[in-house]
Amino acid sequence: MMNVNTADKMYQSAVGSRSNYNQQCTEAAEIASPRDRLFQESQTEGTKLRIRQFDTLTEHIHDRATNKFVQMTSPKHKRYSGFASTKLSSDENKVEDQRALDDIEETIFDARYRPKGGFSDARNNSVRSFLGYGNGVMFIDKGPDRETPITYRYCHLANTHFIVDGLDNIIGVFFSRKMGSHQIVKEFGEDKVPLKILELSKRETITSQVESREKSVVVHMVLENEDYNPAKKGIKHMKYISRHFVCGARGEKNNYLREGGYRVMPYAISRDAHMPHETYGRGTLLKILPEIKMRNGLRKIYIEAGHKAGRSTLLFKDDSSINMKQVRPGKGIIGGLDANGQPNIVPLNQGINMPILGEMMEELKQIVKQAFNADTSISNMNEERERITATEILTRSQEEATSLSYHAAIDEDQMQSSIVEREIDILDNDWGMLPRILDEVEEGAEQTTSSMKYKVYFKSNMTFAQKSDDVLAANRLLEAAQAVAPFDPTVVHTFKTVEYMKIVQEGNGVPAAMMATLKEYEAAVKKDQEREMQSQLMQNAGGLASGAQTILEGSPDAGAL
């Protein structure tokens, strides 16, 4: 079993190996996102963060890009992920299975957006970190009760370090927090806390503990378990081990603060593209760091130039004939003109070219917008037209989906899939809130239910925008069939309406509960046919009865022959 000293050394090594990366992140944060300036320094509450920032454009675009990405991939009021049955069975059974999986989906989303769960905040911040710095981290934990079964916490990249294997898969995570002695004792108990922290906690009053700046770094380590055995129960045989310890603690009680384990990795992580043999992704802020620094420098010059142009330096004659106190608004200046009427006071021409500065800043602005895919939105197009066609809106929506597809695919494959996997684990194994159709399976095998196989799929606005081509093609085919039908009615037989409805359902994310099964569809069609046949029989029967009554009563023309 790994002891505390070994775990501490692993953590210190992970921190030390990231110094170059932290330097770049700090450089980007200082001018593009000062609230993230935590990578190389410790900040106290209320510290001024925007000392080097003269241009806030990149920060605003970063925030808007984050909001758009979240809305496109995980809108709060929509079910943007679900389960699909992959079992080979009849259409009737598939629809029934899908309805059961939809119930599970509903349970998961209900737990995800409980008021005290914190998902929305954790999701927004993790996406922001992913887009800006190339790595987004969210911690998914068991909640305190069934009212809040799952809690979500954003983990800032400055406090999070990864361990990867030879195939670049994340097999371990270190997450650190700075905590006071009172906080450590309250969370982990006196019997596990190092003596130095315990003594400090006893000496201080609660007020002094709150005000004290002396903090200890508490590290949470999650690592793949070498003794993992799914056939055995217990923490020692879980897939991941969990350990809490105080960084750099030495003393009599040099042990773990808490030991545990996880069946599923509790940290959901998304990583942007990175160089070979590197662990951390390089986000957009790092990719366009030269442009960000240049625009920030130009903005500083632009501000200085504006000040100088608005309040220029004045040139006077060296004869002390003019008092500087007279050079104020609304005051007359005696001696301001010479005998020839020429001014004795002139502004200094400093050769400032404001238009060129503005053009350079606008060019860099477009580069930043393109980097964050903020140049395709209608709100950013600066259209002079009052109205834009629906086709143009759809085309731009598709262009947005294409430009965001790379990051969206990473987000779905790495973060959202991990979130769903962890949520199922908590709701099913810890709380028993899911129907008993989800069973654990061996590593690498497809997840199954007691009667079906299933897979996770995504149905966000992003997915629908990418699938809109299929819906548009189907609609065009239907319109063409309607145009030809008056000339050749047989064309309707080339069009399968049932398949058309399936394409529309999948392309728009219609719940399976709204769709009839094939058996229900055929039964409804048969019932309509029988109803139509009965109606015709009643009409024919009415005609025969009328004719018979006429014969029996005698027709006015009966003797005409």
In short:
The chain is of the alpha+beta class and 561 residues long.
Looking at this protein, list some descriptive labels.
alpha+beta, five-stranded antiparallel sheet, 561 residues
Report on the structure:
It is a single chain. With 561 residues, the protein is an alpha+beta fold. It contains 15 helices and 14 strands. It has helices spanning 4-16, 19-32, 57-73, 91-112, 119-133, 181-188, 195-203, 206-211, 284-287, 289-310, 354-371, 390-430, 461-484, 497-508, 518-553, and strands spanning 81-85, 135-145, 148-154, 160-164, 170-179, 216-224, 240-246, 258-262, 267-271, 314-315, 346-347, 438-439, 448-449, 454-458. It starts with a helix and ends in an 8-residue tail after the last helix.
Distance between the termini: 117 Å
State the major sheet.
Answer: 5 strands, antiparallel
Summing up helix and strand content along with how strands pair, one would put the structural category as alpha+beta
- Percentage beta strand: 5-15%
Give the strand order, joined by hyphens, for the main sheet: 4-5-6-7-8
The dominant shape is: flat
Give the integer mean of the pLDDT values: 82
Number of helices: 15
Count of individual beta strands:
14
Helical content band: 40-55%
Rg, nearest Å: 35 Å
What is the H-and-E element order? Answer: HHHEHHEEEEHHHEEEEHHEEHHEEEHHH
